[in-house]
Amino acid sequence: RQHESPRRVKRAWVIPPISVSENHKRIPHLLVQIKSDKQQPGGVIYSIKGPGVDEEPLGIFSIDKFSGKVFLNAMLDREENDRFRLKAFALDLGGMTLEDPTDLEIIVVDQNDNRPLFRQDVFTGHVVEGAEPGTCVMTADATDADDPDTDNAALRYSILEQGAAGMFSINATTGEICTAQPGLDRETMGVYNLTVQAADMSGDGLTTTATAVIYLEDINDNPPEFTKEEFSMEVEEQAAGVDVGKVFAHDKDLAGSPNWLAKFTILEGDPEGAFAIRTDPYTNDGVLSVTKPLDHEVRDRFKLTVSVQNEQPLEPTAPASPRALATVRVRVRDVNEAPIFRDNPRRVSVLEGAPPGTPVTTYTASDPDTRQLQTLSYALLYDPADWLQLDPHTGTVRTKRELLHPSAFLQGGWYIALLLARDDAKPPLSATGTLSIEILEVNDHPPLLLPPAGVVCGRPGRGGSLLLGATDDDRPPHGAPFHYQLSPQQPQLARNWSITRFNVTHAVLAVLVELPEGPYSLPLLLRDSGTPPQERQQLLNVSVCHCGRDGTCEDGVLAAAAAGAGITLGALMIILGSFLLLLVLAGLGAARVRGRRRALRKGLLQRSRDDMRDNILNYDEQGGGEEDQDAYDINQLRHPELFPPRVKPPVRRDAPLSSATPLAPRKLPNSPSDIEDFINEGLEAADSDPSVPPYDTALIYDYEGSGSVASPLSSIVSSLTDEDQDYDYLSEWGPRFRRLADLYG
After folding, report:
1. DSSP tally for the chain: helices H, then strands E
2. φ, ψ for residue 26 (rounded to 5)?
3. How many independent structural domains does the chain possess?
4. Keyword Repeat on this protein (predicted)?
5. What is the CATH number of the domain that holds 53?
6. In angstroms, rounded to a whole number, what is the distance separating the alpha carbons of residues 309 and 253?
7. What is the domain range of residue 144?
């Protein structure tokens, strides 16, 4: 079997790459003519397809379909398209393919039509001053859009201008800028502006420029210096914490940086540390201030030596220089100063009870202004008790009245006064001094027995003791301890009584032998511990009582009375009797009031089962009122047989002729209906009684005032019947008239 050989492609149909220069201006321009070897009787139809033909960008290339000539119809830009790959076709008149499609490659040849471009217009870099040559700062690089494989994009860099001769250099190939020479000094020139150029065609083609700005960074290579060698200033005396003045310094380094900030030091002339100096952070000047008050009279001038240096140390490369020094002269100006009490407060002591005019002390002040002639005067600024008097010229203090103790103006035994010292300057100045006077205690009060009475059992050893106490108006050490003893003038007391010390203020009185019950008066001698000691003889009233089993008094009333006051037994009995009499009288009064209230409840508050005649009360007493419930004995009306008959009264001569004297004895009524007749007969008998005032005698009644809030009683009987009377108001008079309201309402 025979193998088929590979199909052979004719050489005329294989098209080599076609080169055309960009920016070709002769258009249309014949690029190539393609031709197929398979000629048909009717001819061959040629066509091309691809970018630049039927794809973007459209219309750049075209072909003559009968001759196969390919034309360029537009200018080319290699930076946009550096080559085009097309397909060529050969067809017969019927549209049948005569040849397989072949490749048609059109290469755009570059031209130097693009200048180099720097990546930025201004390049910025920093380098420290004094940097060594060869120190690189930055790179100023550029780009070229032309073919990098040709000289059209081969760039070369150079420095056109840098303002100083040869301080910086640039790498021609990379564009890196470095220092070229030593001696960069920020204080001389702090900023360098370089003009940098980039050129293609290895430096012979198109060019472009940019700016490179190089800043020199500061180092501490310059020490601060004073602007002058001597400064003068002045300050008032006694001024502290104030600024005196400034010393001026200058530093060439960058202002505001640590290399510029100065530090000042006072080296000489201030042994007491009265001055201080600090740095003004804004101006870098030294500010001198006073830390302690200055005294013109002691020292009026100062000569200070001040140095200045940087906060940061100098760089080793900086030139060596001595420390900057300056002299500061300060003059202390004299001013008026207030007087001074050197001894403040002044403490003195005076005996209590000192008579008026007693010298206390001489309290004076001194004037610091020794170089000025001034006179001081004194006055009392505070004397709450008005106890003192002061000499305004000498400052001598004396008592104005007797100093008493205790007093509300004393504080712990001290009296506080304030003195004012004033000079005669204009304006005057003053000072205040405190005078503390201790009122020394004088032993002028003997101790006082308290309480002066007590109760003890009359049996030794079992309650037969009494605790004694005393008080003393004097303060220590003129008070306790107190000394108790029986009166030496009556030595016989020691046979029955004894006194022993209990503590510094109390003692114990004890019974030595069994004593009968009753009151005893014991003279005691009490003495304090003052200097000289004060003593007083006092009576102690002791009531000896009957002792119980537990050693206490059984007669509590006697014990309590005797313990409360030192009185005799007879006086005590009188007091007890009077007290019992008062209790009896109070009981009788309470019983009487209770009886009246009980009668009132029976008369007004009982219900209808009670006889209304029980409420006949005696109202002829002015002032008794409703509380007076002493009623007539109604039993005489109910049971007349129980009472003896009345004798016939004598006939009155002044009785009216029409009045008839009833017979005696009268017959008492047997039923309630005869009450009216009985009362009339009693009235007639009273009129005939010769023991009463005459019938026509004018009677005197007490004046009770004009007007009354109550209605007149005559209104009750103003009508013969009760039908036209309204008794509803009785219910508003309270519980006492509730019964009447029920009857008449």
Report:
1. 5, 40
2. -85, 105
3. 5
4. yes
5. 2.60.40.60
6. 12
7. 117-217
